[in-house]
Design a protein that fits this description.
This protein has about 325 residues and is α+β, with helices and mostly antiparallel strands. Helices cover about 50% and strands about 20% of the residues. The protein has 2 domains: about 10-150, 3-Layer(aba) Sandwich (Trna Endonuclease, Chain: A, domain 1), CATH 3.40.1350; about 160-310. The chain has helices at about 10-20, 85-90, 115-125, 150-160, 160-180, 190-205, 210, 215-240, 245-250, 255-260, 270-280, 285-295, 300-310; strands spanning about 30-35, 45-50, 55-65, 75-80, 95-100, 110-115, 135-140, 145, 245, 265-270. The protein is elongated. Pfam families: DUF4365 (PF14280).
Length: about 325
């Protein structure tokens, strides 16, 4: 008589081995917690720590083990993911990573892709009706997304919710900024109004998820080309003229030939200099509003991914 023994599928054994290996490829300072109920949801939660303190940011992982050899010379690793899992994950609050862990590697490592961003940037372009698929959707996991070695990228992904919140806060700041000069022409700005504009710009710089996170290129770019010059412009206007050519150029303003002819001992004619500096300050709100649109333009992100291989996911 045969014994009615319970047996585990080999795939479950492989996934269990992967869940054991994944934490060992993460920084020791980061905390991890395994989920108790798995099905098509979340296998593990990672909490990001920095200098011994919790950042309040976390990642959620769906972990898949494999015994296959993954060729690091390839650009991507194809994985067919159940549609029901993707539909569940795309509405998830925290960033969710699909993690592929080669369990036979002697040194613990894994590959990953940020699923919500991948859905928005890639799937919506290449397979817009993917939700209608009956079974699976193919996900292309970038081979360059490997751990250990990409800790900064994972921290950047984990900071996503704070980034979204900071963009919302920036929108409110820009609305206030616009109201400061709403009723006055550029030539009629008071020093009190300029000082308030400077205060709002400095308040914007405190939004660390946008302007203080080095991996976030759109934020770093706008800090350099928009906010820093606008604050400098406000400081110059509060100080008052005369203004040197170098000071006018320091806020990103290129002087015209007519303006250069009016220079006197490296000093720009006061009215021209002042209007040039005010022009920089007056266009700050439009520039940052445009940056918000560009930073969230998934069509542009897809183009960059296809042409240059650069991506957030």
């Amino acid at each position: 008589m045969e014994k009615d023994n319970k047996c585990r599928p080999r795939s479950h054994e492989i996934d269990t081995a992967a869940r054991r290996k994944v934490p060992t490829a993460l920084p020791d300072a980061w905390e991890h917690r395994e989920s108790t109920g798995r099905d098509y949801g979340i296998d593990m939660t990672i909490e990001i720590f920095k200098e011994g303190c919790s950042t309040g940011n976390q990642l959620e992982l769906q972990i898949k083990g494999t015994e296959k050899l993954i060729d690091d010379k390839e650009d991507v690793y194809d994985f067919d993911m159940p549609v029901k899992s993707l539909r569940y994950i795309e509405n998830h609050h925290y960033p969710v990573l699909l993690v592929i862990c080669p369990v036979n590697r002697p040194t613990p490592m894994f590959y990953y892709v940020w699923l919500q961003d991948y859905i928005q940037v890639v799937l919506e372009k290449e397979n817009p009706e993917w939700r209608l698929n009956r079974s699976t959707v193919r996900i292309k996991v970038p081979i360059q997304n490997s751990m250990p070695g990409n800790e900064k990228h994972l921290s950047y992904i984990a900071n996503h919710l704070r980034r979204v919140s900071d963009w919302k806060r920036l929108g409110a700041i820009l609305h206030e900024f616009k109201q400061v000069f709403w009723s006055n022409d550029v030539g009629d700005w008071s020093k009190a109004e300029i000082a308030e504009a400077k205060r709002l710009l400095e308040k914007a710089l405190e939004l660390d998820a946008i302007f203080g996170d080095p991996p976030y290129a759109p934020g770093q770019l706008q800090k350099i080309i928009t906010i820093d010059p606008a604050i400098k412009a406000a400081e110059l206007l509060l100080r008052g003229g005369p203004f040197t050519v170098e000071e006018v150029r320091s806020v990103g303003t290129e002087l015209t030939d007519d303006a250069l002819r009016l220079m006197n001992d490296e000093t720009v004619e006061l009215d021209i200099a002042e209007m040039s500096i005010k022009f920089v300050l007056s266009h700050t709100e439009n520039r940052l509003s445009s940056a918000l649109s560009t930073a969230n333009d998934n069509s542009l992100k897809y183009l960059v991914w296809k042409q240059r291989g650069e991506h957030d996911f």
